[in-house]
Every structure is written in C-alpha cells, then in structure tokens.
Amino acid sequence: MTTIYVPGDSGARALGAEAVCGAIGREAAARHLDLTVVRNGSRGAYWLEPLVEVEGPHGRLAYGPVRAADVPGLFAAGWLEGGAHRLALGAFESLPWFCGQQRLTFQRVGRTDPCSVADYGANGGYAGLRRALSMDPADIVEQITRSGLRGRGGAAFPTGIKWKTVLGQPPGQKYITCNADEGDSGTFSDRMLMEGDPLSLIEGMSIAGIAVGATQGYIYLRAEYPHAGRTLNRAIAAAYAGGYLGSDVLGSGRRFELEVRLGAGAYICGEETSMLESLEGRRGEVRVRPPLPAVKGLFGCPTVVNNVITLATVPLILARGAEFYAGFGTGKSRGTLPLQLAGNIKRGGLIERAFGLTLRELLYEYGGGSASGRPIRAVQIGGPLGAYVPAAQFDLPIDYEALAASGAMLGHGGIVAFDDTVDMARMARYAMHFCAVESCGKCTPCRIGSTRGVELLDRILAGRGGEHALERLEELCELMLQGSLCGLGGMTPFPVQSALKHFRDDFSAHAQH
Amino acid sequence: MPTSALDREHDVRRILAQYKDRPGPLLEVLHAVQGAFGFIPPEVIGPIAEGLNLSRAEVHGVVTFYHYFRSTPPGRHVLKLCRAESCQAMGADALAAHAEARLGVSLHGSTPDGRFSLEPVYCLGLCACSPAVLLDGEPHGRVTPQRLDALLAQADSGAGGDE
C-alpha cells in the first residue's frame, strides 16, 4: 500500500498544494491506483513546498517543489516505486538542511497525520499525559521548572514558576489559556504546529490543567489563521472521541475541557492581559498588573497563559524527563527553539535547534543568503517590536541573554532578513505606524506617541525634519519606553532606536535631498 | 448577500440563543453575525446589546476596536494584502501599489461596482513565502504583480482553483 503525503499546511497551500493534491487524485483515478493521501503538516522547508512524500516498500521519498503540471510526469517516472525524476530529493530526513536540526517540539510536524489520534499515539504522543496522570501535581510543576522551559511567546518567563503560582492559589475555578495570537511578522511556528501537530498542543494543555487543577482550557486563535482553526477543531473533536479530553481524561476521573476562541485582528491581543479581556468578550485593552493573571486572570480566576510552542513542548518534557530537555541549550536558555527564517531569504522556513546557534549560521548555512542575491544588510529579530541587527553583529549566538546584552531580543524566534536596498528610516517609520494602527489607546505614550513618531519621521523622510529632528525622535522613544503601560508602546522604540543607532546615515540621507 | 431586515432579525435571534449562555460571548456572537451577513449591520447592535444585557456603547466599542469586524458590506471578493515587515522585504509595498492601481481603490476601499474589497493585514504567518495575500480566504505566497493580476482575473471570472 502506498501513502502519499501532500501538506495541508497554509504555507504549502499558498504555493499550490491544493492543486497538486487534486492532480494526484485525478492521475491516480485515471491509472486505477488505490492510494492513501495524507494531508500532513509542513516539514518547514518552504522553498521546497509543495513538498510531496511517497511512502511505500522503498521507504519514504520526497519530491519538491511540485507543481500540479508536474504530477503526470511524476507518475510516468514511476515515483510510487522510487523512480528517478528531476524533483526527487531522496529521503527528506537525510537532507543536510534537516538532519542537523534538533526537532523536539516539532518532532512529528510534517511526518504524521495531524488529526489522527492513532498516528499521534504511535509516534510518542500521550506518553507525557499518561505519566502526568500518575504523578502528584507539584511533581509535574517541578519537572517543568527543572527542564528550564521558558515562555516561547517572547517574554521568556520560566513556565514552571508561572504554573507554581497558579497551583498555589486556593482550589476553585482555574483556567489554562493558550495564546495563539501569533501576530509578529516573520513568525509562523505556532501556525505550523497547530496545523501540523495540534494534538501535542492539546496534550500539553491537558497536562497543564492536571498540574494546576484547572478544568477548562481556551485556545485564543487569531482570525488570520482560519485553516489552523479548522485543524484545531478537528483535532479537539478527535481527542474528545478518543477519551483524551472531557469529564474523565483517560479514565482517570480528571476533567479537562477545551475550546478554540477566535480573535478579531488586533495585534495587541497577543499581550496576555489584553488577550484575557478579549476572551471575556471585551475590547482588548491591557490590564494594569498586578494582579498577575496567575492570581487573577480570566473571569477573575487564577489562569495559566502560555504560548503554543511552550505548551506543545510540555508533553515531551513529561515523556522524556526534565533532564533530557535541559540537556539541550546554553546558559539560562535551555532546550530548543523553533526558529523561523523569513523575509528576503533564499531558503525560508522553520529550523529547530538548541539555543546557541549564531545568526550567521542560520542566515547563510540554513537560509542560503538573501533571495535577491544581494548582501543581507540587517535582520529584525522578534517581530515588529524587535531591534534591527546589522550584519556586523551576525556572529551573535541566538540565546535570550546574549541577544538582550546586545540590545536585541529573541521574542518568538522570528528572523526577517533585509537586503541592502532597505531604507532603515522607512522601516523606523513603519514601526511607529504599526504601533499607531494597533495601539489599544489606553495609555497616552503609546496612543499619542506613536502618531507623533509617524509625523516626525514623515518630516524627516521628506527632508523637512530640521536640525534637531533626530534628537526629538530619540526623546520620544525614551518617553514611550518609560511611560507605556505594556510592551506595544514600551517596545516600539526598539526597532526605531536600533535603526538610529546602526543605520543613522539612512536618516540623514533624506535631509540632503 | 441581499438579506431582508426580517431574515436578519431572525438570524440574530438564533445566534444569540446559541451563544448567550456561554462565558464572555460577545466576540463569538459578532463572529457568527459577520459569518452570516459578511459584516455587522449597524441595526443589529441594539438587538445584540439587549440579548447579552450590555449597553449599545459596549457592543459598538467592541465592533470598532477589532480590525476584523466591518460595519459595511464587503465586495464580492476580498483581497487582503500583508503589509508587515517580512512581506515588505520582498516587495509588498510595490504589490500594494499595483493592486490599488489595478482595482482603482485604496486599501480599506471597495470598487464602486462592489466586485472587490482591498484590505491591509498585518501578517498571515506565510512569511517564508513573502509577499503573501489572502484572496477570499485562500492563501497565496510569493505573489508577483503578474500573479496577482491572474488571481484577480480568475476570481472575477468565477473560476476557482490555483495554478
């Protein structure tokens, strides 16, 4: 029996996977072949998407990038029997791009049938949940703490400490919430995981619920990810049907219910207190902390708020042990990070590696340099609130502390490359513009400051900034940084300040015209 | 989609009955309403407020806070162009200018004949195949101006599919 894997991942769809899938169906029917087609997640090698894999007696062989028009030729070349073809890549897991990676959180993404509980269980799934059900809640939390896992959404707060706070609250209604409002440009690991291995997120949330005594979970998913929503809902239904969710999880007598709630296109709702407001059905305006969500969160109850990648890593830690996970990484950055390489890059995609890889290795060995063939001039790390890092600093290791020490931040692990045609003064304007569009309006430094920043940069770009324009821009950045209520206004200065620091000529260039 | 006021009232009552007892239901209700009508008609704000025991101001405040909710009907086809950094690094600004020129509308606008709406979006999670767009909910990556023209023509002629 031959199985053909055609990714159902949105990125693969965006490159024509639906048409390829249709062509395979038609060709198989015409040839009276009985094939099983699995819509897997993406392997993360987007320059090879749509990447089709054929599994039969000869093993599992990859072909890509496949266009619908290539399909008849692939059948004619005998790809079901491992026949030679110009698109043949051999076994995907032997490609140098892949075999040097350390895929822990993404161990199943691209390999398995995303919503199949049976396939999930046969590939290591549910071992963590089974183990957690046999443990004392405090011991589960202790495992997470010892693993060194930190919040992968961007803030990098130790996950075990957050869970311990929620566990320590008096018994009663508590919640597990998953922040799936992945709004940073250049990031797509949450999307890939939810589309490619949603059951690991569901299992991670169940373990969190059992650990802290919460019976209800919500996944707050951004509206821009409709396909991830459909996949999650199918996976949740399969988990309920299999007894992995509900009033009696795996016959343990423990209850855990889970549902997906949709956001509505507000970047600020990725901030945890704003997300809670939105989950409660209100405007996503940030809350003043304290109280922390772990003490008084959703509907006023103790609440765990974790990112998709954080929660999806939990099952592996329980299954393999805290020491196994902590054995990867460097310093205080333990484990692995699914890095996302995007923008002007030849081989964009997802690379999961232990912390400590340098930017240069990532950009050139994995990424193959810029897509345009021109020199990479800068990268932005950690989304629209992240600093721009100049090429002179590409030997920085990718870990939380090393990047912070150089004035950058790792955030959610997205890295966007720009070639030497980029105008960094325009990118600084965009940072202020984005903040003005997305500000929730609650605090003045963010609401008014971002609009003032756009006005100021517009004058600079038009060559009418005047003598002290850059000093005024620096003052404004300082004010927003010190005075804003949350990270949106408080971090928008980072890309602006880094552009001013490393690429000051781009600003003065406009004054000369 | 032409819907009579009576149908709308009926649909809103059905949606409220389905969601009103769930915790924090307003966003769920608004998603269902926009799913049914394509937008949130101003005249349903009152009934929603009443059904959920909120003030009209609260419901209006939520509708206008979120970029995804719209208060006017969309065009027959909705093109969402990603405007974020990764797509900018791969020519999204030129693509947006091309789309505006071709359709004769600015971002946030609809063509006078109601065929197309053009909307900015900040990241579709397709950053490894920038620039990316969403046309009637379907994702497309590495979109050149020529490819965009082909996609728009295909949508306009009613043909589905890709490639």
Enumerate the strands of the largest sheet of chain A in spatial order, edge to edge or round the barrel: 2-1-3-4-5
User: What multimeric state do the chains show?
Assistant: heterodimer
Average pLDDT level of chain B: 93
Distance between the termini of chain A: 68 Å
Number of helices of chain B: 7
Count up the domains of chain A.
4
CATH H-tier superfamily of the largest domain in chain A? NADH-ubiquinone oxidoreductase 51kDa subunit
What general outline of chain A do the C-alpha atoms trace? globular
Give the CATH class of the largest domain in chain A: Alpha Beta
Tell me about the biggest sheet of chain A? 5 strands, mixed
The end-to-end distance of chain B, rounded to whole angstroms, is 28 Å
Portion in helices of chain B = 40-55%
Backbone structural class of chain A: alpha/beta
- Report the largest inter-chain contact: A-B, 68 and 44 residues
Specify the helix fraction band of chain A.
Answer: 40-55%
Structural class assignment of chain B: alpha+beta
Structure commentary:
The complex is a heterodimer of chains A (513) and B (163). Chain A is an alpha/beta fold and 513 residues long. Chain A has four domains: 95 residues, Glutaredoxin (3-Layer(aba) Sandwich); 210 residues, Rossmann fold (3-Layer(aba) Sandwich), CATH 3.40.50; 91 residues, Ubiquitin-like (UB roll), CATH 3.10.20; 88 residues, de novo design (two linked rop proteins). In chain A, 41% of the residues lie in helices and 15% in strands. Chain A has 22 helices and 16 strands. Chain A is globular and about 75 Å long. The relative contact order of chain A is 0.10. By secondary structure, chain B is of the alpha+beta class. Chain B contains seven helices and four strands; from the N terminus they run H-H-H-H-E-H-H-E-E-E-H. Classes of the chains: A alpha/beta (513), B alpha+beta (163). At the A-B interface, helix 1, helix 2, strand 12, strand 16 and helix 17 of A face helix 2, helix 4, helix 5 and strand 4 of B.
